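Entry 14. Ran structure prediction on the chain below.
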Amino acid sequence: MSNLRVLFLGDVVGEPGRKALSKHLKEIKAREEIDFVYANGENAAGGRGITPKIAIEMLRAGVAVITLGDHVWDQAEIIPHFETEPRLLRPINFPPGTPGRGSVVLDCGDTRVAVLNVQGRTFMHSFAENPFLAAQQETKRLREEENATVILVDFHAEATSEKIAMGWHLDGIASLVAGTHTHVATADERILPNGTAFICDVGMCGPVDSVLGRRWQPIVQRFLTGMPARFPVASGPVALNGVLADIDSLTGRATAIRRFRHEIP
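Output, structure tokens:
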């Protein structure tokens, strides 16, 4: 296998996102000739966190690795599941002693593929360690100790400046640096000078007629009145958003990147 085609799907939001993923991923993989899929699942359980049942469901649907983010602990039952499922990742730069792990290496044909989950700090939880140092140390370990040729990074962060900086920081080290968390796909996909594919945010997998996957009506009311309100997951048409990257499996350098969107009425 000289070329590896990777699909990274953005934050899966609630039941609509999960159902669309389970129903359509197999046909998408066949149509796009995809070799490896990973997805962010931190909003999969009612929009907040993930449960063991949902994690198993996503893996059975064809997702090879699930990354998470700042909502990782919202469903307490997920905590012991990290001990038995190495393909479920939390950000690697969480404090020492935190349950779970931040990276995993899998064999895809003859290629050793690593997935690394990192969380930003700008406008995010302050308890996370420095993401730039953590990413630098772990990518080095993945190359040298795990013999990973392809390294795929989910940088779960708020600020576009922090995400762009991470892309440059890992250029020539990671194969793909793709952002999650904002749920809105950006139009800045490119291959950086040293061969790393980059995009600020891949968007979300969830309801189209929504505000970041939630019903828009109570959110508008919150903006109008300032009064607290519940924000349930929206319904209606769903879109699966992500990014497709072609990577040379011998060098780990990206050769192509494009945004991905699959709409379901």
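The domain at 3-264 is CATH 3.60.21.10 (Purple Acid Phosphatase; chain A, domain 2). Will compare against last week's run tomorrow.
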